[in-house]
Amino acid sequence: MMHRFYALSTSFAQRWGGPVRKLPLDAGGSCPNRDGTLGHGGCVYCNPAGSGTGLAGRGLSLAAQWELWRNRLPARWRGARLMAYLQSYSVTHRSPESLAALIEEAARLPGVSSLSCGTRPDCLGEEHLALIAAAPFAETWLELGLQSASDETLTRLNRGHDAATFADAVRHAAAAGLPVCAHLMAGLPGEGIDDFLETIEYVNALPVAAVKFHNTFVARGATLETWHAAGTFAPMDRDVYVDAVCQGLARLRSNVVVQRLCADPAPGELVSPAWAADKASLLRDIRARLEAHDLWQGAAADAPAGPPAWFSPDNPPPEKKP
Length: 322
Fold this sequence. Notes:
The chain is of the alpha/beta class. Helix content is 33%, strand content 16%. The strands form 2 sheets. A 7-stranded parallel beta sheet has the order 1-2-3-4-5-6-8, sandwiched between helices. A two-stranded antiparallel sheet has the order 7-9. α7 (193-204) runs parallel beside α9. It starts with 7 loop residues before the first helix and ends in a 30-residue tail after the last helix.
């Protein structure tokens, strides 16, 4: 089958000559939207336990978590390069001294080659960026939540920052030599496909290196669960989400790596919609829809002539700037 988007696995193969596995790590911490720095309650879609594993709360150190995940790797991944993914909450919502100690701890993990730090765009001071940029890894990424480019939507979500804050953080990160993966959500309260596409256009104009697409699902304990029970929020239909992703890929710059096409609810987390639990089937349908409609990443952006050759692991992408 023809490659129709610039997959993370392809990007890894081009840059490192083989696979890379991201191992999620929970460094504890919190979120300014929960601990009172900005507010309480978190974003309306967010599980109160955060998006990570929760293993720090069970007393597991980073080293213990690392060994846990390494030992669970299937045999086919035992020779892969390993990336430490500091995932839970906002990893830079801490003092520069605490962040420096955390990076040093991650760098001591056996077999680690690269690092990815998940955080919010309003939790990145100059010292934080400098520490991450100087981290002793072969490659270091920042993962930043935007979700929507609409300030009205961000207010509705209780995000606590605007789109301009995200844009400013991306530009500062790029200036520091850090690639950014932007998290974008389809089906947010009050939004449809057109809003999602406008968010992609917003990201296209920024030095974003990768994206993760997420379908908005109702997580247990989130504010959205209350809205859903009251009938004031309904998740996007499955077919509409498939269409949103396909149209979004067509609008997305062709040199942006696609790290994820849909959300991945944790066991026991999902309230609605039921289809969000069947990730494999959803991915198959997205790929089939791209094929059936002869769409590819960048078709409505910078690659109208056909799927770029660098979608294949055998062809490295050219150096391109947004």
